[in-house]
Amino acid sequence: MDFDLRLLRHARALAEEGSFARAARSQHLTQPALTRSIQELERRTGIKLFDRNKGRVEPTDLGGVFLAHARDLLGRAEALDREVATLRGSGTGRLVVGSGTFPTASFMAEGVAAFLRENPEIGIRVVNDNWSALVAALRRRELDFVVAAPPPPEEGTDLAVQPLSFRQGRFLVRPGHPLVGKPDPSLADVVAWPLICTGRLSAPIADRLLRARSGARARQPLPDVACESHEMMRHVARTTDHVLLSMLSANAAAVAAGELVALPLVDPATGVTFSILRLESRTLPPIADALAASIVTADRATVEMERELAATPPARAARSVPGRQRRAAEASAVR
Description:
Elements: H1 5-17, H2 20-26, H3 31-45, E1 50-53, E2 56-59, H4 61-87, E3 93-99, H5 101-106, H6 108-118, E4 122-128, H7 131-139, E5 145-148, E6 159-167, E7 170-173, H8 187-191, E8 195-197, H9 203-212, E9 225-226, H10 230-239, E10 243-246, H11 252-256, E11 261-262, E12 272-279, H12 286-311, H13 317-320, H14 323-334
Parallel strand pairs: 3-4, 3-5, 8-9, 8-10
Antiparallel strand pairs: 1-2, 5-12, 6-12, 7-10, 7-11
Helix pairs in contact: 1-2, 1-3, 1-4, 2-3, 6-12
């Protein structure tokens, strides 16, 4: 069967948007033009791809199978376009990388900025999401590589994993939180309060926190508030008694300004080693390796910043954050 990539893109957009009107806008088409495109694809395949359910357009069972293969085909075609553009010898090209919630808030901004200072002609699109969604997109070849927590080893046999630095999870609260005045709070003391964090905690971290909980909260899923926006997490932690589970470098500006306080509890089981994840079966252009190297450098720099923040009393924390790193942290806080 002769597949038209343009038609496949239109079908992918409709599946993602769930609406002909929104999908048409995303593809810069009129709604009748998109309808004709889907009808033509259904004619070529001989199957009904979509159903209308209560005002929402959803793939049929056969359509879902077809679209899974279409996404993979489009990912490969788009990756080929990017790689050819990069390898033409002009030094230009485009990369699409995924960044997990915590890397985005910590070191990715400086890693990308440092790369662009040396390679201003390269286009980059950074997709921010949780690690599970990013790894799925990587496998569809929609992303060149991903910076996130790796999946369990048994689920990542098709991935090349380049470990970055170990990041210690820390519990952060507002300055007037009852836990601030409690000497040497235990993990059980901390998780007795509602937690706010990324919605996709790794299984070992979630199990560790749940085992420390008792009473009615022990039956509740973690985190109590799930969010992929660090600015929203910080706002909730600053204005409620929720405890933020994060990293110091992701909250450097708020800690330096005295808006959040890192509790003294340090539990190694709540740490994570982020990684650069690629497909084993895919060879990336040299420019992707250059971006990865820049991200490694930025990761190491923020580890040093975390050590300084951890060792510095809150009143002096602002002076301990190096200028460029402080500005990057403040910019992340604004975002």
